[in-house]
């Protein structure tokens, strides 16, 4: 197809106006309903962009997403530029949205003391023959976002990179973190390296406003909390 001055293909738009690029650059909430639908249908017609076709679909639904979810395959394919494949894609997206509304949001566990940390990490660290270093990412209410393993080493130690830890925390929008590592030997006495890395990470957390709430040494028979022992 020859590109003309009046071309309406999305690939000919300014990059900041393309729905996919706009989503990647500004996030999904920045897109209009028509732009989101345009991403689903992928292309328009020789004379209309995907967004133009998406706007026609919305008009047929009275610009109401609830009504859009009730349109049939026949009603969707009645819009010029929408064949069976595109209509099925839209129907599938609407069905997923309906099921999402019906799903119960999983209840997040809350960390209120060091025992909760120990119990949370049991499935990950129990019976490990080598050292691993983990962080627990928390939101502002101290609910667990998720635990993340940041390094794995040998019997007597593992390397910890503060940059990796706080990169992960920033990407997950964590408001605080808890440090956890295991001692396969069963000893609960923190080493000099344990104390040093705790100090370094606590200082970095203060600067980034992502506080380190605790550092727990995990063993199969018990644990030590830096916070409980006043070592933070």
Specify the number of helices.
9
| SSE order, one letter for each helix or strand | HHHHHHHEEHEHEE
Mean pLDDT: 89
**Main sheet: which strands, in order across?**
2-1-3-4-5
Q: How much beta, percentage-wise?
A: 15-25%
> Which structural class best describes the helix and strand composition?
alpha+beta
Rounded to the nearest angstrom, the distance between the terminal CA atoms is 66 Å
Strand tally is 5
Shape: elongated
Flag low-confidence runs. Answer: 1-7
Helix content range of the residues, please?
A: 40-55%
Task: Tell me the major beta sheet.
Answer: 5 strands, mixed
Q: How many whole angstroms does the radius of gyration measure?
A: 26 Å
Looking at this protein, list some descriptive labels.
232 residues, 5 strands, disordered N terminus
Structural overview:
By secondary structure, the chain is α+β, with helices and mostly antiparallel strands. Helix content is 41%, strand content 15%. Strands 2-1-3-4-5 form a five-stranded mixed β-sheet, sandwiched between helices. Strand 1 and strand 2 (144-152) form a beta hairpin. Helix 2 (33-41) crosses helix 3.
SSE order and pairing:
Layout: H1 19-26, H2 33-41, H3 50-60, H4 65-68, H5 73-77, H6 84-102, H7 114-125, E1 132-138, E2 144-152, H8 162-171, E3 176-182, H9 192-208, E4 212-219, E5 222-225
Parallel strand pairs: 3-4
Antiparallel strand pairs: 1-2, 1-3, 4-5
Helix pairs in contact: 2-3
């Amino acid at each position: 197809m020859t590109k003309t001055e009046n071309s309406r293909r999305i690939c000919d738009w300014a990059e900041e106006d393309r729905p996919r690029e706009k989503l990647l650059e500004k996030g999904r909430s920045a897109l209009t309903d028509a732009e989101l639908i345009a991403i689903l249908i992928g292309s328009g017609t020789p004379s209309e962009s995907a967004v133009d076709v998406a706007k026609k679909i919305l008009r047929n639904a009275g610009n109401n997403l609830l009504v859009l979810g009730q349109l049939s395959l026949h009603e969707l394919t009645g819009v010029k530029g929408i064949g069976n494949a595109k209509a099925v894609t839209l129907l599938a997206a609407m069905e997923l949205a309906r099921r999402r509304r019906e799903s119960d949001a999983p209840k997040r566990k809350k960390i209120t003391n060091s025992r909760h940390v120990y119990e949370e990490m049991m499935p990950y660290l129990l019976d490990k023959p080598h050292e691993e270093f983990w962080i627990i990412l928390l939101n502002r209410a101290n609910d667990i976002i998720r635990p993340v393993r940041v390094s794995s080493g040998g019997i007597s130690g593992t390397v910890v990179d503060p940059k990796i830890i706080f990169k992960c925390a920033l990407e997950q929008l964590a408001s605080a973190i808890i440090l956890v590592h295991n001692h396969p030997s069963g000893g609960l006495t923190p080493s000099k390296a344990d104390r040093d890395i705790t100090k370094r990470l606590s200082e970095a957390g203060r600067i980034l406003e992502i506080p380190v709430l605790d550092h727990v040494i995990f063993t199969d028979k018990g644990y030590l909390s830096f916070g409980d022992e006043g070592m933070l």
